[in-house]
Amino acid sequence: MKFLLCVIGMVLIIEGLPYFAFPEKIRSYLLKVYDTPEGTLRAFGLVSVIVGLLLVYLGRN
User: Fold this and answer.
1) Residue 25 CB contacts under 8 Å (≥ 6 apart), including other chains
2) Is residue 46 within 8 Å of 54, Cβ to Cβ?
3) How far apart (Å, rounded) are the C-alpha atoms in residues 27 and 36?
4) Alpha carbon separation from 26 to 29, 49, 51 (Å, rounded)
5) Domain boundaries, the chain
6) Torsion of CA 44, 23, 25, 41, to 10 degrees
7) DSSP structural state of residue 61
8) Are 50 and 43 contacting, i.e. CB atoms less than 8 angstroms apart?
9) Each residue's pLDDT tens digit, 5-55
């Protein structure tokens, strides 16, 4: 459980850094994401999940 909390904390730190450091660029980026077709976002999400699972698998073995 301690490891899980550590991982969640690290993810929040990494996710929060761009919003803290470059809020104006993040806003323009999010507007571009809003205009991106749904299929493209789904494909990007699926690739991200697969890469994440692969990294977890490689890290655990």
Assistant:
1) 18
2) no
3) 15
4) 5, 22, 23
5) 2-60
6) 20
7) -
8) no
9) 999 999 999 999 999 999 999 999 999 999 999 999 999 999 999 999 999
